[in-house]
Amino acid sequence: MLIPARMSEAEEQRWVNVMLDKLAAQESRRALGDAELAERARRLSGQYFDGRARPASVRWVTNQNTRWGSCTPSEGSIRLSHRLQGMPDYVVDYVLCHELAHLLVPGHGPRFWRLLEAYPRTERARGYLEGVVAAERLPHVPGARDA
After folding, report:
1. CA-closest candidate to residue 85, choices 33, 146, 142, 48
2. Do the domain assignments include residue 18?
3. Contact 5, 147 (CB under 8 A)
4. pLDDT tens figures, 71-119
5. Could you give phi then psi for residue 69, rounded to 5 degrees?
6. 147 assigned to some structural domain
7. Which of 30, 68, 70, 110 stands the most exposed, by the fewest C-beta atoms within 10 Å?
8. What is the CATH number of the domain that holds 113?
């Protein structure tokens, strides 16, 4: 977050709190429960895979910090990282489509990627996620202020 250099520390703290409250409210509006996530997956399967990808379960998990999602085709289970919550809908939809495609094609070979081409925002979503990963790798200097 960029903050004008002329702000006092008290003004900065007040502004940061206001922005954090806004972000929290926005995230809570966006966050889906597991039932809504499963319904979203069913809708996406119908739209992009002719309903052929039928997950038995779709849920958020908090133990995936290096992956955005995972799928166990033999069980029909899809898990999405809680880190996706609050990201744009097209990004969450991409990860869901990616995992849905694994129900039809387990690996990441050419057949898998051809199947995933059905989702029109694949490249944009992948770029977004790559940007998130790159930003997470940037050094963090505690107490530093952007001027």
Report:
1. 33
2. no
3. yes
4. 999 999 999 999 999 999 999 999 999 999 999 999 999 999 999 999 9
5. -160, 170
6. no
7. 110
8. 3.30.2010.10
Can you read off the two tokens belonging to residue 79? 């898990």
Total domains, the chain? 1
Query: Which of 44, 53, 34 lies closest to 125, judged by CA?
Result: 44
pTM (two decimals): 0.74
> Rounded to whole angstroms, how far apart are CA atoms 114 and 31?
30
Rounded Cα distance, 51 and 53, in Å: 6
Domain limits for position 52: 32-137
Distance from the Cα of residue 52 to its chain's centroid? 23
- Give the separation between CA 50 and CA 135, rounded to whole angstroms: 36
Q: 71: part of which helix (H) or strand (E)?
A: strand 69-72
Place of tokens 């996706």: 84
